[in-house]
């Protein structure tokens, strides 16, 4: 707790330098965009806020999302236009694997690292990641945990003097101008570590992803009540497929085509729960599981996407294939 408070006060940057609010009624600073435009008369004027700034997509430009198999835990790498973002780093025994995976993908620095929440299966590998790569900004849920694992992460952040910010619903994270990353949770801290998970929706062209950490039904209800646009083609199923998450109401609004469960084989929690598998099947989404499929990589040009798994190679989900055929016709 002490270390956490210390880092918040000594290592943090103002949230404005990392995020821009998603409130269209105010003007907003943006790290990657010049807020000042010149009009025809040469006078400077404030650029109106664009809630979803996008640049034209080209076939050379792909957003790639790697769901790294770290056993029972989460670690997700997002790549777009030479920008790299990591969400979680698996448990303590997975740090090496995450570092190796990033190095295999020629990564030398991480523009953004997000710790969805303080549980060991999400942040245990974080010190190794922070010690192996230059990290430009670190984003945390703000709900601390009284564990050595959490303290080790904070020590690594402090030693590297990494700019540290807290996520709050409604903010956007600036990774690349082509991509919109919206924070959907936490709106306010509840004290429940899973429910305070950082939940993110990423859109690239017409393709969208939802990353849920271990958020449970209470958080999902809050997100639904806030009336965000949460429709997403690809869903990282919350909490390793636990029945405490992925409520029917939330799932219906997310309306995913592809559902990815990050889970370890024969884990002691019985994840993923059969009820959730049945629910996902009922909704008709294609299910991928890191315990069965290994690493799962989704690549999109902003119009279509493909799914590649470590065990099966390239798999085009039926929904996307149907869509591609419709586009070709
Ligand atoms: Zn958790
Ligand atoms: Zn977890």
Structure description:
By secondary structure, this protein is of the alpha/beta class. The chain has a single domain (63-328), classed as 4-Layer Sandwich (Metallo-beta-lactamase, Chain A). The protein contains 11 helices and 21 strands. Strands 11-10-8-6-5-4-19-20-21 form a 9-stranded mixed β-sheet, covered by helices on one side. The chain has an 8-stranded mixed β-sheet with strand order 1-12-13-14-15-16-17-18. A two-stranded antiparallel ribbon has the order 2-3. Helix 5 (126-132) runs parallel beside helix 6. The chain is globular, with a radius of gyration of 19 Å. The N and C termini lie far apart (59 Å). It binds zinc ion (2 copies). One zinc ion binds at residues 119, 121-122, 214, 239-240. The site of one zinc ion (ZN) has 4 residues, from loops.
Q: Short summary of the structure?
A:
With 329 residues, the protein is of the alpha/beta class.
State the main characteristics.
single chain, 329 residues, alpha/beta, 8-stranded mixed beta sheet, globular, disordered N terminus, binds zinc ion
CATH class: Alpha Beta
Major beta sheet summary: 9 strands, mixed
Helical/strand content category: alpha/beta
**Strands of the largest sheet, in order across it?**
11-10-8-6-5-4-19-20-21
Query: Whole-number average pLDDT?
Result: 84
Helix content bin: 25-40%
